[in-house]
Design goal:
Elements (H helix, E strand, L loop, with lengths): L1 H7 L5 H11 L2 H17 L24 H14 L4 H10 L3 H5 L12 E6 L4 E6 L2 H8 L19 H16 L8 H12 L4 H8 L3 H8 L14 H6 L6
Antiparallel strand pairs: 1-2
């Protein structure tokens, strides 16, 4: 906000300022900064030139989840070239938690039998608690418990996500011959496949920390884009064949 105000004084009208913002920021960032300015003007009861300005933000593209085959290739590749991170990556794919939540997960937030986990949802300032899949439970039981993080870097520290992406994620995808997508796509992959498998959307939303509408809008990327209506009256139509109206 400070950098925004420092540059604000160099422009004499809103249009000039918006033009400057557009040369340095994406549309969504321009919109957010104008919202900040508008709230400041309202707070100080000033004439608000930003209130009526609308910024068109392009629709956010849906993520392209990994297929079953791609997930297997990625995990096999990880096992070969970055074995230390295999469990971390498996957890990301299988649970669908945000990467930051997974890297920050501590053993104190995992039940003694490894069947339940407590996720501190900092984005929504909530606590999510749910049961883990059997395969994840088995994986956690084979890991050594400590008083610190469940998953660590090769050096024993909290996993730095940018470092993980550059040093491990990109080479893993390259070796697996899988098109690049951000590590966050592990979350979209888990959610999309769960929806495709017919899992209750309300349950998925509760586990992942979404509204159901947001769940479908942002993470339904693997569901058939042109769904076909079921023949709900097929039997009725068959029984009435040949009958004149």
């Amino acid at each position: 906000m400070r950098s925004l105000l420092n540059n604000f004084e160099h422009y004499h009208n809103p249009n000039q300022f918006i033009q400057w913002l557009g040369t340095n920021n994406k549309a969504i960032t321009v919109k957010r900064k104008l919202d900040w300015l508008s709230r400041c003007y309202e707070y100080h009861k000033l004439e608000n030139p930003w209130q009526e300005i609308k910024v068109k933000v392009p629709a956010k593209p849906m993520p392209t989840p990994f297929s079953d085959v791609e997930v297997q290739k990625i995990l096999n590749s990880c096992k070969e070239i970055a074995r230390h991170y295999y469990d971390f990556l498996y957890f990301c794919f299988a649970v669908g938690a945000r990467l930051g939540e997974t890297s920050a997960l501590k053993w104190s937030e995992v039940s003694e039998d490894c069947s339940r986990v407590v996720i501190c949802d900092q984005k929504r300032n909530k606590i999510r608690q749910f049961k883990l899949p059997d395969s994840v439970v088995a994986m956690l039981k084979h890991r050594e418990r400590s008083e610190d993080f469940v998953f660590t870097s090769a050096e024993g520290h909290k996993i730095a996500l940018n470092n993980f992406r550059n040093r491990y994620w990109i080479p893993i995808l390259t070796k697996a011959n899988v098109d690049y997508r951000k590590p966050y796509t592990t979350r979209a992959t888990c959610i999309s496949h769960a929806l495709l498998a017919g899992e209750n959307p309300m349950r998925i939303a509760q586990i992942t920390g979404h509204d159901v509408a947001v769940l479908y809008e942002n993470y339904g990327g693997y569901i058939e884009s042109s769904p076909k209506l079921p023949d709900v009256f097929a039997k009725s139509l068959e029984s009435s064949e040949g009958v004149s109206p």
